[in-house]
Amino acid sequence: MWRRNASPVKIAAELEISQCTVYTELKRGQEADGEGGVMLDANFRPAYSAERGQTVYQRNLRNRGRRPKRETEQKEAKQA
What we know:
This protein is mainly α. The protein has four helices and no strands.
């Protein structure tokens, strides 16, 4: 739908999901060139890639949660 020039509001209405969800997914799946700039599609909007969106989602899923304490913090906690 994004390639066919549909607005995020129309996409959200069609899929019956929140507009925020559509905007978040479009941002997650933005294609970038080698220099960090955003690639544009035929409609001169940021290009969207579902594969990239899925990859970023999986990476963020693995990285979420509580971070383990560093060794020095653990040693200080044991001594106290």
